[in-house]
Amino acid sequence: MKEICPTVERIVREWPELESPAFLHGMLTGELCGAEKLEVGDFIKGLLQEIGAESVKEKALQTLYVLYDETLKGLTSSDFSLELCLPDEARPLIERARAVGQWCEGFLYGFGLTHPGRAKLGEEVKEYLETLQDVADIDSEALKDVEDEQMNAQLEEIIEFIRIGAIAVYENLHPAERKPIELDTIPEPTHKTVQ
């Protein structure tokens, strides 16, 4: 996934409506979790409609196919290998926190597009979505000029919660042969928002 994120960033520059690579990846992950079954063609067609584009360059199309494929594999693999399209640890804390918030916004948006019947969701899934809303509301500007190990560790903890939670939501809404992950067994982050 890390290899494709820079290419996704170039696509997003052409489609500023998508906000960031993190938002686009969150949106795709949310759609995959919320939809009964989301084919890659449906994802791309829906994306083009969302941004008002009538066509897409071949390179961008290939990138979207790979992004879809890698994300679906990550959600369904037995080794919980989902990776989030976020800036790496070398980037400033404010940039990473902003991207995490954008990923959460994207997930909520994509999930809402494909699973509008929120009342039908289990409590654990609803709680996860509420946590994503809290994270999406992170005031990343408050982190300007802040760089310390504790804040970075808290952000990494939040990222891991989001990542494992997305896999758990997918499993709970798409029961496979293996036993679904119980959402209440995932440790809550000690800090839901970076302060």
From TrEMBL:
Domain of life according to the entry: Bacteria
Entry-linked Pfam families: UPF0149
InterPro entries given in the database record: YgfB-like (IPR011978), YgfB-like_sf (IPR036255)
Signal peptide (from-to): none
One cellular component term from this protein's GO annotations in UniProt: cytosol
Family: Belongs to the UPF0149 family.
Protein name as it appears in the record: YecA family protein
